[in-house]
Specification:
Shape: globular
Distance between the termini: 28 Å
Radius of gyration: 18 Å
Structural class: alpha/beta
Number of helices: 11
Length: 265
């Protein structure tokens, strides 16, 4: 009997995760089936997980902090960042992991000479990746519209700014859109004037949104900057999640062979 997996999020219709995981299940001859579930209320995540009789799930925006609360057992990194994007059920208990940050770290390691990083946005993905990047030796600062979401970063010793506090003289090697701006609209993650000042001095730009050239990426290309969308991050975090889903039965490279086909279909 096939084990059932899903991705919880809102929106979720655009997600490539079902294709990625189902290609890997089929290619590796593992009895799994992966679906998608639009979850309006993140507080229902745990009850919905059991109701749907899932073996595992990925969690995307805006439910990563609720996913953290839904778990019985958390790995050390998830505990550190307060955010979960992968859940696996074992013996009736929910185990939580964060594979986003590892996927992001692997994706940006392909850029050269990056030391200083600016995150635009302060959600769950930004929380986890800021910690792992700092641990890996990067200097990370966070810019967000409102101050409320910046509290987590302040408590963890990061330099933070609201739009009103930000200095346009600041300089960063890497600018990252960590928001959903541009996913279903043509918005920028911050005032366009900020980007017009930041991009000329930056070495590279990344948008965690994938499958669409967002206004953020479009503008960065006008300044001839090396760019990445979220595809590599998505692929790498998906491979690590699949390792958890299948309890380490397959290697990173074995999974990658099948999972990366989702990006050329």
């Amino acid at each position: 009997m096939s084990k059932l997996f899903t991705i919880f999020g809102n929106p979720v219709s655009h997600s490539k995760s079902p294709l990625m995981h189902n290609l890997s299940f089929k290619g590796l001859d593992y009895g799994g089936c992966y679906t998608r579930y639009k979850l309006e209320d993140g507080s229902q995540l745990r009850s919905k997980f059991f109701e749907l009789k899932l073996k595992g799930a990925n969690i995307t925006v805006p439910h990563k902090e609720e996913a953290f609360k839904a778990c019985d057992i958390l790995d050390d990194f998830s505990k550190k960042v307060g955010s979960v994007n992968t859940i696996v059920k074992r013996d009736g208990k929910l185990y939580g992991y964060n594979t986003d940050a590892l996927g992001f770290l692997k994706a940006i390691s392909e850029f050269k000479d990056i030391k200083t990083v600016l995150f635009l946005g302060a959600g769950g993905t930004a929380q986890s990746t800021s910690i792992i990047l700092r641990d890996a030796g990067y200097e990370v600062e966070i810019l967000n519209r409102s101050s409320k979401r910046l509290e987590y970063f302040k408590q963890n010793g990061f330099t933070t700014y609201t739009f009103g506090e930000f200095s346009l003289n600041n300089h960063y090697d890497l600018i990252v859109n960590m928001t959903s701006a541009g996913l279903e609209d043509e918005n920028y993650p911050c005032p366009v004037l900020f980007l017009e000042k930041l991009f000329p001095k930056a070495k590279s730009c990344v948008d965690v949104i994938y499958g669409k050239e967002t206004p953020f990426l479009k503008l960065s290309k006008e300044y001839n900057k090396p760019t990445k969308d979220g595809s590599d991050m998505l692929l790498y975090q998906g491979i690590i999640a699949f390792e958890h889903f299948t309890d380490g039965k397959f290697s990173f490279e074995e999974i990658k062979d099948y999972m990366q086909k989702a990006f050329i279909l």
